[in-house]
Amino acid sequence: MLVTGLALPSLTQAAQRDSRYGAIVMDHDTGAVLYAVNADRRSYPASLTKVMTLYLLFDALNSGKLRLDSTMRVSAHAAAQAPSKLALAPGERISVEDAVLALVTKSANDVAVVVAEALADSEGDFAELMTRKAQQLGMDDTTYRNASGLPNPGQISTPRDQALLARALIRTHGKYYHYFSTRQFKWRGQPISTHNRLMLRYQGADGIKTGYINASGFNLMASAKRQGRRLIGVVFGGNTAAWRDRNMAQILDKGFARAGKGPDIRSASIESDDRADLDALIAAANRDSSVKQVSMRAAKSAETEEEGDDDPSTWAIQVGAFNSYKPAHSAASSAAKKLGGLVSTAAVDVSELHRGKKTTYRARLTGFTEDQARAACKRLGRAKQACQVVQGS
Questions:
Q1: Residue 107 bears catalytic tag
Q2: What share of the chain is helix, strand, coil (3-state, %, to 5)?
Q3: Any idea which of 115-124, 258-267, 317-326, 352-361 has the lowest mean pLDDT?
């Protein structure tokens, strides 16, 4: 199903209460700003940081310092990074191409440090290179302190700067941009799916990166191309991953509509007009009880889980599909009892799937982190219970 912009209600006023929110839509070819709200508000880029890490890796590929089949060594420091990660062990080696794929899909923090240490004497030295590159690209409000985006109070950026980075990467390293469209890759035989669910649902979207830490909220850098015109969008500070994705779809729709009216657009008037739209969108989100429930689960998880990338509680397990609601609910409830403490932040969910005249009821438990979901299925497997890990709500 394709995501389109939301129909905005004609109210209200709550938008600026979240001091983290900022957004921008930029025309890739001209650099014209088509949408802007708090575009220069400084906040934490979270895993959007890895786009700069990849930019410098692509620089190294272009210069011949590395090849896609080159391998990089994993240090103890890299292996010790917090999730999201590939769980690499010290002394292991990973190819450059696998590292690229791990960064754009899994957003692996350990791999980000492997790249940093392959290109500089230390991660700190690499962060200085990142900041220097940012200055060269006109990212005047950006400072990097690490290669992954894990929490650091000195690591800051703005939506505008991140849009400049995306534009520069696509223009300078276009031959590598296709990696950001990767939906899934296999690591040691295990499939790893992208965190970028907007790319799977929004017409024309083909990349590029999600980000989440508790201090930043839910961030997204996206690019979409329609009728030969490419736009870049950046959202900082969404209150959930789903809200962030819907907001990005709405502002990209607005950007494409404005781009079709020609280049004579003044960003000052856009800024004031778009604040009213943001007020209305946040009001709609606050009235959406399902968004509230996801937000509470995400907040609870953020207190107990290490901060890494993307919504920590948007994974689910499916324990069967049935022809009626009652046995589906019974199966999900039975699985919850078998799992005990593993489902403390999860909820029973029975959803209808319509195919022609046939209705199937999927029995799921939702609200897991990825590691929790995989652990849950492993435990159910030992109990001879069918189980499938599912990403996204």
A1: yes
A2: 45, 25, 35
A3: 258-267
In a 3-state reduction of DSSP, which class is residue 367? strand
Which of 43, 50, 85, 133 is catalytic? The answer is 50
Which residue would you say has higher pLDDT here, 144 or 13? Answer: 144
Q: Residues of the chain with pLDDT > 90: what percent?
A: 59
Altogether, the residues listed in the chain come to a count of 393
DSSP string, 154-209: T-BB-HHHHHHHHHHHHHHSGGGGGGGG--EEEETTEEEE-S-HHHHHBTTEEEEE
Q: What is the pTM assigned to this prediction?
A: 0.73
Distances 96 to 54, 230, 257, 295 between C-alpha atoms, Å: 10, 28, 39, 36
Identify the residue with better confidence: 13 or 373. 373
The dihedral through the CA atoms of 15, 25, 293, 313 has a sign that is negative
Is-catalytic flag, 50? yes
Q: Of 43, 75, 107, 301, which one is the catalytic site residue?
A: 107
Q: What is the pLDDT of residues 168-204, one digit of tens each?
A: 999 999 999 999 999 999 898 888 888 898 998 899 9
